[in-house]
């Protein structure tokens, strides 16, 4: 198996694709960890109505946008991704809360 190269060192599309595929696997593993926190939140929150917190959602998206911009990434695009991520997380947490509540 060939080593995964940093993007700046890639000279072929095969190297680029191998790097992207490896990063995608890492991102999915990180999302698993993030969703584990949604499981914890569903367990900890006292009521289903506490799952959606618009102020917290706005804070999370703003933090992601700021971090993206600090890293030289397009803040608007990252904010849009985080909007989808947070909404998916809320849906997941609601389902986890419902499973817990039985």
UniProtKB/TrEMBL annotation:
Residues binding substrate: 17, 34, 45, 93
Keywords noted in UniProt: Isomerase
Pfam families tied to this protein: CM_2
One GO-annotated biological process of the protein: salicylic acid biosynthetic process
GO MF annotations in UniProt: carbon-oxygen lyase activity; chorismate mutase activity
Enzyme Commission numbers on file: 5.4.99.5
Keyword Isomerase: yes
EC class (word): isomerase
Domain Chorismate mutase: 7-97
Domain of life of the source: Bacteria
Record-linked InterPro entries: Chorismate_II_sf (IPR036263), Chorismate_mutase-related (IPR051331), CM_dom_sf (IPR036979), CM_II_prokaryot (IPR002701), Isochorismate_pyruvate-lyase (IPR008241)
Statement: the UniProt record of this protein carries the keyword Isomerase: yes
PANTHER family per record: CHORISMATE MUTASE
Name by which UniProt lists this protein: chorismate mutase
Protein source organism: Sphingomonas adhaesiva
